Structure of VanZ family protein:
Amino acid sequence: MDRIREIFSRLPYWLFSIITTLLILWLTLMPDPLGDDAPTLFPGADKVVHAIMFGFLSVMLLLDYQRKHGWRETGSGVMLIAAFISSALGILIEFIQRWMAMGRGFDPGDMVADVAGVVICVFLWSRLQRHWL
């Protein structure tokens, strides 16, 4: 684990959060980011993808924060801020999709999935982080 921390410490502190945010923006705001190759898995699969994307963003925010602050345990205030930022971005993206005329649509279900993914991942982070510190 120390080797991984050493490698991570050499990278810019907010790198993972920025990469994740840019990827989410591309996937959610481009008209057809996956083209015709997008698989159809099961009804509601897009909600699962939304939960994973925004939950992962909250984890990346927390990981980057923890890296910057010497791998100390992340407090509940920081977790709430990461959850708020991730959830707010998910909700904001839905409104942007509503206002854009690029073939994307507004879906309140996506907002619920975004927030649910964030809540689940931040909860898991709060319970599991002490195992890697």
Q: What stands out?
A: The mean pLDDT is 90. Residues 98 and 130 are 41 Å apart (CA to CA). Helices lie at 2-10, 15-29, 45-68, 76-99, 108-128.
